[in-house]
Amino acid sequence: MKCDETESQLKEWFEKLEKPLMNYAFQIVHDREEAQDLVQDTFLRFFKQDEKILQPKAWLYKTLRNLCISFLRKNGRLQRTTDEEQLDFLDSFNRTTESILVKNLEKKEAVDRVSHAISLLPKESKELITLKFDQQKSYNEISKITGLSVSNVGYKLHHIIKELSSELKAEDFFR
Amino acid sequence: MNNDLDISEEEIISYLLGEVDNDKKLFIQRLISENPQLQEMERVLTDTIRLVEQSTKEPLPDLEEGELRLSQKRRNTILGLVEKEETLTLEKQKSSLPKDKKSDHFLFWVPLGIAACAFLILSVTDSDHLSTAEITLNREQESNSEQDELEGTTIDAIDTEEQLALNLALENQAQEGVVQILTQRSTIEVEAMKRDLNNSLSIGDVLAYSEPIPFNSVEDSTSVVSPVPSSANRSAPPRVQSETLSKIQNLGADHSIMLHTKELGAELSVKKEKVVDPSPKPIIEDSVVPPLRTEQIEQNEDIIITEKKRKAAGSENSTQTNRTSSGRFQTQAIPQFQKGLISEYLPRLWGSSEPTYLFTSKGKTLGKVRIIKKTDTAIEFVRLNETMRGKSTLPDGLGYQLRLSDSNSSTVIIVGHLTRVKVAEIKNKRMAKSDLVKDLDFTTYSIQIEEAWKLDEKENRIPIK
Q1: What residue ranges do the domains of chain A occupy?
Q2: Is the pLDDT of residue B432 over 50?
């Protein structure tokens, strides 16, 4: 194997990320069969990859996302074309406008990636995220609602954010 | 927590989430402003928190647990690829090991091959000095030596140089063939013939010829060569009453002298024309004919008898028509030949333990033979190296030569017509040498003696009458 993984390790990666990647692809393309095709293609590329893969999980997510976006573009289901047409139309707004639009698109991809990551979290963690970021509750309030200690709420939320930031950074979202 | 920094990542997250008091907030702000590394950390965490805030507002649809797995077919495809990749990896690892062995083999075989080639080149170079037939003879003798070992027979060691010289002489004789024998007469031989003709008739003359040998050159191939004996002369056999002569007459052997045609060479033809007396020889009375002795036979060895069995049965002294190189025919007088003299010489050969070899008329060796029966006019034998019994049977034909040694270790060559007496049962499988000895089902041949030569010390051919 190209990433210095043994057969058992490769299977382990497959078993570990099959469901998350399947869910992620479905969340992007909203089609189960297409999602299966894309996930399969992702894993096949993963096993056939000649270059050494340092971060298999990040590589798999990034590859699957690119495949999903390509699929959506081919099927006209991505608004990128509209954005590009707007770029042509708004050419007078110079390149700043273009960069904003590209950034917005990348941001959308990042939001979807984070949403997917949150969807994979345990129910308790999801509840903490909802209380903190959707309902803007403080640690104390969350502690009272969930019955967890303030420090425990803080620890769990910090841990989630740290993990997310690491994954997003590994997937080149923060360039 | 980064030990190089004065603040932890958790504290920055708490700060970004608004969970720190004002003093701590100011403290963290100051540290971040002073440290670019903290600034980068703050930027990443801020973006992450912002993305989380946005993602909570736009929840994504989830698949149910049962739908999250790939279909079994897709799983097999993927996992099969994993196993295949693993197999390929293992094969690569395995193949990397034998490569060293292969290189070892390569290093072993290449020098060996080069050495073999060098040996072959040297062999060929050496063999350039010899002839192909000589090589064949040597090889045959080698194989025959092996055969002798199998048979338990004893072969006297032959000096290598002598053997080479012998083989060279044999090759010369064999390749020239019986047809060209006359062309190889030396001046000495011709002069001897002339002397014999001019002098009183010897026993050899009487026994060898009933009428003169027309060694005429072929001046005109279209005409009949002169002199052609008349039918009256041909019908009158010599009246020789010696025991040997009577034997000859009883046998009724008639041989023809090999024709001397244009292609045999003009120079030699002129020589022979000068020395040969074309006149018929007189009839010799019984009293003139001395008793035949071995010494006399040997003294008359310089007289060449080259003859061929006449095809036309019943004509003792008939003319023979041969086709010349121009395709035309000429007629030669056919003298009578007495086999009895050879038959008297042959008994001296049987006592020799030297091996006997068979050759074709062109000198190609046919291997060692074992004589199983001999008469005055024929020798019956089997080929000892006939590995394909029944299939490698020799065809009948003229000019086969048997090479054997007499009691004086002199080489004797007997030329004659080969016939198959008994053909061995056909065996489809090639026999091993060890099996050749066990299997007694040999093809038996008989060679009708037509002429015989002896090789002197200088390997010159001396005919035996």
Answers
A1: 7-74, 79-120, 121-175
A2: yes
